Amino acid sequence: MDSLQYIQSNHTPEEKKASLDLVRESYGEHVDIAYEKYYDWQYLENPFGKGNIILAYEGGQAIAQLASVPCMYKIQSSSVPVTYAFLHDTNKRECLFS
Q1: Which domains does the chain show, CATH number per domain?
Q2: Mean per-residue pLDDT for 60-84?
Q3: Res 63 pLDDT > 80
Q4: What's residue 51's pLDDT?
């Protein structure tokens, strides 16, 4: 873990692929969040604002991500982020985000 690099995603095609690959590895290929159109809606076209993703790279490979998605809760009608973390199987026991 000596060469970890954290990058704020700009949602480039390469970053989107890395993000979706981590989701598919964690949850399988046939869940909503594994589809590119859902990614676009959730992070780029979300009516409550743009989502944020921080990708962790080691040796040029994305090994983890921390994602925040704005959602509207009816409690006091305020927008709050929902956070997801996805880790490459080989890094599930590591503390990559704290």
Answers
A1: 10-91 (3.40.630.30)
A2: 75
A3: yes
A4: 87
